[in-house]
Amino acid sequence: MEITKKIGFIGAGQMAAALAKGFLMKAGLSQENLLASDAFEASREKFHAATGIDVTDDNIDVMKECDVVILSVKPQVLPDVLEEIADHVTQDHLIISICAGITLAKLQAGLGEDIRLVRVMPNTPCLVGQGAIAFCQSETVTQEDFEITCALLKSVGRCFHVGEHVMDAVTGLSGSGPAYVYLVIEALSDAGVMMGLPRDVATTLAAQTVRGAADMVLETREHPAVLKDRVTSPAGTTIAGMRQLEKCGVRAAMFEAVMAAANRSRELGKAD
Ligand SMILES: NC(=O)c1ccc[n+]([C@@H]2O[C@H](COP(=O)([O-])OP(=O)(O)OC[C@H]3O[C@@H](n4cnc5c(N)ncnc54)[C@H](OP(=O)(O)O)[C@@H]3O)[C@@H](O)[C@H]2O)c1
């Protein structure tokens, strides 16, 4: 879809820059369609250098000039930002929050019950255009808002529309998930070094193996168990390795990790 709306970011940090680059390269937006604001000069300069997009020091400029406003400050700063912009939010705005753990109810409490709101849970691979993203929305969101949100988010990864009740599960799986996978890559690399590989070769082999296996799942759409069975020949090397993984409880560890992170996300959401 062609996006003709003006899109603004409040908070011109890492995630805003990653989204902006995706919007420019893959969502068909031009610099003139975009604006950002940031309270800090160093952040403004960095964002402008990375994207070519104008950055103002006044968050209200973004509210006045943009139809879609993306709240991309750290969650701790968000209450102050909501207070600052509340009087400037109109029925014409679509507000998209990417702030981790901030619920629609909290956003509505700060900005008004009837505003059009989307809550997004991105993950760090958005920084390289490979995000795994879920979003939920308020009842006030229109079909056009929904389509704009999908078009924007798809420019930095794969996105799913979900109910807000599963946002903690999303946080536990794809939000925190990159850290689990980094740990797996590091462990595979260590094991390769242990068996005599140079570090850089071991790390690249491990990371490329994770990427290749992930692409196989996404591109073939085969069940992961089917793909696993195809590479485990009778009495072969892979089944010997699999036996050790099962003995060490890797499958159970993944359950525990995702459940612990989702529960922690739920706790943090209730805390304030
Ligand atoms: N990075 C990720 O992978 C990731 C993943 C999931 C969700 N998120 C969410 O994305 C949001 C942004 O994260 P990030 O990593 O991009 O953070 P970040 O790099 O720290 O970006 C936030 C930016 O907002 C600026 N800022 C602070 N107070 C402000 C104010 N009152 N008005 C305007 N701008 C202000 C910050 O300036 P200073 O740096 O000078 O303080 C910074 O440039 C967070 O809410 C986070 O929960 C991030």
Written account of the structure:
The protein has 272 residues and is α/β, with parallel strands linked by helices. It has two domains: 7-167, Rossmann fold; 175-271, ProC C-terminal domain-like fold, CATH 1.10.3730.10. 54% of the residues lie in helices and 13% in strands. The protein is built from twelve helices and eight strands. The protein has helices at residues 14-26, 41-51, 59-65, 78-85, 104-111, 143-154, 167-175, 177-194, 199-220, 224-230, 237-247, 250-271; strands at residues 7-10, 34-37, 55-56, 68-71, 94-97, 116-121, 131-137, 157-161. Strands 3-2-1-4-5-6-7-8 form an eight-stranded mixed β-sheet, sandwiched between helices. Strand 5 (94-97), helix 5 (104-111) and strand 6 form a beta-alpha-beta unit. The protein is elongated, with a radius of gyration of 21 Å. The two termini are 38 Å apart. NADP nicotinamide-adenine-dinucleotide phosphate (NAP) binds next to helix 1 and helix 4.
